[in-house]
């Protein structure tokens, strides 16, 4: 059983959902679909709902007998002793209007304007100052047929690295030669260091559940991670995900392309060791903090 609720739903998206689910009220869809169709429907919703909000609840084999996902909402799923609860934000107390920082008096320097803009971005993003920089390595680019072979995470408080973790993941198929050459991860390494996908997701969830997760090209990594959730039946609870690629596109406009190593070099961040998960996390961490100085 699956239930999806949305507001500001575009007509095209409503048409796509109506092929698989019944619309029993405005923006409320119900039905029975398999995990693969469910994941594709949720991906379609997240890609096309624009400024609208969406929530999905579906049956799962866990203590609560259900899982849920939320998109574009200030309400956040959070883990509480193994149970997934919804964190509702406190109501905003109205205060006496004050002069806004952006209402600058003549004579303010460009540096002052950038600093004020950065403070506004920090407030709007609701930064908790606790980040988890995440990267994965895969056997290819197709989330349906390719697999995760490595996961890396670097945790920071403020700008201080507090923990590094990575795991080689046992795939169901042999690793292509091109990926072995690119990453250095081969069957021998898998045999000696590899852990199951379920174990890797469990540890990953413990690392990131109370942090803002930063990923470079987040849609790619998230597609593989959502697929891994469907395969294992284990959920990963993301407090919030920031796509560092989108941040780079907004703040850097003089690079030939937006590959991580290209942006890193532009920011004077060494890209040595590229194409291993933990190395990429290190590059991403340093590059992201420099991007926030713009």
From TrEMBL:
It comes from the Bacteria. Pfam families: Cas_Cas2CT1978 (PF09707), RNase_T (PF00929). GO terms for cellular component: cytosol. InterPro entries: CRISPR-assoc_prot_Cas2_sub, DnaQ, Ribonucl_H, RNaseH-like_sf, RNaseH_sf. Residues 130-294 form the Exonuclease domain. It comes from Candidatus Ornithomonoglobus merdipullorum. GO terms for biological process: DNA replication proofreading. PANTHER family: DNA POLYMERASE III SUBUNIT EPSILON. SMART domains: EXOIII. NCBIfam families: cas_CT1978, dnaq. GO terms for molecular function: 3'-5' exonuclease activity; DNA binding; DNA-directed DNA polymerase activity. This is Type I-E CRISPR-associated endoribonuclease Cas2. Keywords: Exonuclease, Hydrolase, Nuclease.
